[in-house]
Known about the structure:
Elements: H1 5-20, E1 21-29, E2 32-37, E3 41-45, E4 60-66, E5 69-75, H2 76-79, E6 92-98, E7 101-107, E8 109-117, E9 122-123, E10 136-142, E11 145-150, H3 158-177
Parallel strand pairs: 2-11, 5-7
Antiparallel strand pairs: 1-2, 1-8, 3-6, 4-5, 6-7, 9-10, 10-11
Amino acid sequence: xxxxxxxxxxxxxxxxxxxxxxxxxxxxxxxxxxxxxxxxxxxxxxxxxxxxxxxxxxxxxxxxxxxxxxxxxxxxxxxxxxxxxxxxxxxxxxxxxxxxxxxxxxxxxxxxxxxxxxxxxxxxxxxxxxxxxxxxxxxxxxxxxxxxxxxxxxxxxxxxxxxxxxxxxxxxxxxxxx
Length: 178
């Protein structure tokens, strides 16, 4: 059973509008603004004591104990090859779900949550090809700034995800033994 054009016109925009809007958490890494779909973020926490993990990739800050769960923390500044930060005054950790696991993303500052329509999000520019470009889904405007939309699925390669699972298991067993 199909709708008439009049029914589609009457119901279409409101239904499409609801599906076309996305809320993005905007945050700063260095001098640049980035964003992540708010639905991917479980919570935002202040930095905790991070336990370093030997032989982990350089962008893995270590692991934290979050209410009994071992959570690996990725320093996005290091992942995006930004210069080292100064004092950690505004640093936050975004707790996100990635491939069925929980991961923390360390950022310099969380700025705001903004609503964007899917039409306001443009594909990544053509010059963003090659090393590092795989981290981004697109770009959108925030006042007079451009905000890079992060592809959370690509922050870690599949091999790096497997390594993190091993780190979580190893440190989880250690915490359970204490």
